[in-house]
Amino acid sequence: MEKKSGHILNASSNLLGFSLVIITSLKISKVSYSTHLDEFAGIACLLFAFSCFFSFLSIRATRDRLRNRFETIADYLFLTALFCIVLAVIIVTMKII
């Protein structure tokens, strides 16, 4: 199995920061009460954080079976969080149009 944990950790941490910027800007502009955007961004934050955690565990694991399991969990968490970010972008797009 190709090692993807380093890439997942890098992308998850970057998108975690992006999600936190979305939440912060929504709270500052007081828009969070009228949309579900902050809920999707909050879920994405949690999923990206757990994806970072599991990809880090995968990098540090010594046994191959455990490494593969952690990497698979991180991969699925990352994909789910990415879907939440896409939903947030769709919501923003629909509100602008």
What does this 3D model show about the protein?
Keywords: Membrane, Transmembrane, Transmembrane helix. The chain crosses the membrane at residues 7-28, 40-61, 73-94. The relative contact order is 0.19. This protein is an all-alpha fold. It has helices at residues 5-29, 37-60, 64-96. Helix content is 85%, strand content 0%. The chain has 3 helices and no strands. Helix 1 packs parallel to helix 3 and helix 2 (37-60) runs antiparallel to helix 3 (64-96). The model has no long low-confidence stretch (mean pLDDT 87). It has one domain (5-96).
| Unreliable stretches | none
State the helical fraction.
over 70%
Number of helices: 3
Give the biggest beta sheet.
Answer: none
Helix vs. strand class? mainly alpha
The counted number of beta strands is 0
Keywords: Membrane, Transmembrane, Transmembrane helix
Transmembrane segments: 7-28, 40-61, 73-94
Q: Could you write a compact summary of the structure shown?
A:
The chain is mainly alpha-helical and 97 residues long. It has helices at residues 5-29, 37-60, 64-96.
Sum up the structure in keywords.
single chain, mainly alpha, membrane, 3 helices, transmembrane, 97 residues, transmembrane helix
Present the secondary structure layout.
Elements: H1 5-29, H2 37-60, H3 64-96
Helix pairs in contact: 1-2, 1-3, 2-3
